[in-house]
Design goal:
By secondary structure, the chain is mostly helical. It contains six helices and no strands. The chain is globular.
Length: 147
Amino acid sequence: MTIKHMILPAIFLTACGGGGESTSTPTSAPATSSAPVVQTASSLSPMERGAKLYKRCRACHTLEEGGKHKVGPNLWNVYGAKAGAKEGFNYSKVMAASAVIWTDETLDAYIQKPSTFMKGNRMSFVGIKKQEDRDAVLLYMKAKTTP
């Protein structure tokens, strides 16, 4: 049985007076629904939201100290680091030659639309449009990658 099938009869019975029960004001607290609570993205803390959004980055990046490089470099200690300088990763020529230092501002601009921030880089990720989503991802990344 789906949530929709559990909730709709309950809403109908409530709207129609409880299916034959008295419509007077109840003297006790109403029964709670057994339907599962679904947490929406807007009800998550910024850190929880960042962790959830970061899941799309995990296919290519690791965050932990000593983590392996994947399609993209390990991001441990990325804040304050020069772009394209992580030892053991084969960067695009444009990334390796850049003078970018990764800060909140540069990372925000990069994850908004990597192809626009640094033309010629190899990151195929389309980007994160919403500022609140980027802020949450960066908060999570900073917490996970800063020694």
